[in-house]
Design goal:
By secondary structure, this protein is mostly beta strands. It has 3 helices and 13 strands.
Length: 224
């Protein structure tokens, strides 16, 4: 991805959230020069991967396959200083028909909450013994209501509704065509993007960046 594209996506995300009355924590607005003035008091932000995360999953087609994420809070599975923070919260911005590719987590359990904007579509499968998609029925919880659905069911999550995604449940999601961009909340156990994303097809979790202009904000992978 070009840095200019990432900058534009961050700016658009801030504008979208503002229109819905949503504000990011202060570090969401810090510039690289702000970060250069910050010391060890900000280590939790750095070490736990808080902040901006923009990805095209290495495919170079952000409009078709991509996601804008802001991690508001997170613990860390191996650093004792943050062991008491066993939870994570994210904001996800998903465009119409823009896919987050089929994947599962081995450790993380998450609730995906459609906060506002467009409807979310979430397709679910169980993970089979071979690591691929299983054809058996899937048991899901929708706002605490337990349901059993066929493998590959596309569940529509409207604003205010949510779905619980348990470990080893394959899922792919996008905003439903004609309903607009979806603003999602993710509440989960500790998030570890380095080791706990298992894609059905081999993909890169973070993009390669072409530096065609200066960054407006650092991504969560760029802290020093």
């Amino acid at each position: 991805m070009k840095r200019s594209e990432i900058n534009t996506l961050m700016s658009d995300a801030k504008d979208l959230l503002a229109r819905h009355g949503m504000r990011l924590p202060p570090f969401g607005y810090w510039t690289p020069s702000d970060w250069r003035r910050m010391g060890p008091e900000c280590d939790e932000i750095r070490r736990c991967g808080l902040g901006w995360d923009v990805t095209d999953f290495g495919l170079g087609e952000f409009g078709r396959v991509g996601l804008v994420i802001f991690t508001v809070r997170n613990g860390h599975k191996s650093l004792k200083a943050y062991a008491g923070k066993t939870y994570c919260e994210k904001i996800l911005i998903v465009r119409e028909n823009q896919r987050t590719p089929m994947h599962y987590h081995a450790s993380k359990q998450e609730d995906i909450i459609c906060r506002c904007g467009g409807d979310l579509v979430c397709q679910v499968y169980n993970r089979g013994g071979d690591g691929k998609l299983d054809g058996g029925d899937v048991e899901v919880s929708l706002d605490g209501l337990r349901r059993t659905v066929k493998a590959g069911t596309e569940l529509v999550i409207k604003p205010g509704e949510s779905i619980t995604l348990t470990p080893f449940m394959y899922h792919e999601f996008w905003a439903r065509e004609g309903t607009g961009t979806s603003i999602l909340g993710e509440v989960s156990t500790v998030n570890d993007d380095a080791t706990d994303n298992f894609f059905l097809n081999a993909l890169g979790r973070f993009p390669k960046i072409e530096e065609d202009e200066a960054p407006a904000h650092l991504l969560c992978t760029e802290y020093q």
